[in-house]
Amino acid sequence: MNALAVTIRQGDEGEQRWFCGGGLHTWKVTESDSGGAFLMWESLEEGGKATPLHLHADADETFHLLEGAVVLYLDNEERSVRTGGVAVVPRGVPHAFKVTSPHARMLWVHTPGGGEAFYRVASDPVIPGEGRPPVNFGRVKAAAESTGGAEILGPPPE
To answer: 20 φ, ψ to 5°?
Structure first.
């Protein structure tokens, strides 16, 4: 692990990437910024966005819902998370979520770091003037397989 670097990014700062599973990611703290301790990004998701059922074998995943509402699927259970709520999903726990409000804004943290390669391979940089690319779960699955940052277990729960 490297040393933690002083990192300050304002609300409108950070590398922006279109995640191929849907949503706009703004990276607030990269693994190199945190010395490998964690990865943090903010995501803006449209209503109806759903993730495939997946797990992260080597990282705990935490999100703070800044705006909106989601249903989180954990071990065949549905749990609602609303504005201001937090969810912690320990490594190895199968999970998925679906945005149930018109949009959701979330702050994500993966601890320890190690999943950044997955998100880089499964996303594209935002290019001003160009629109969002289409959702491509095939690319997300290929990124998961090639980097080990996630394991896709199945389609989004109904």
So the answer is: -70, -10
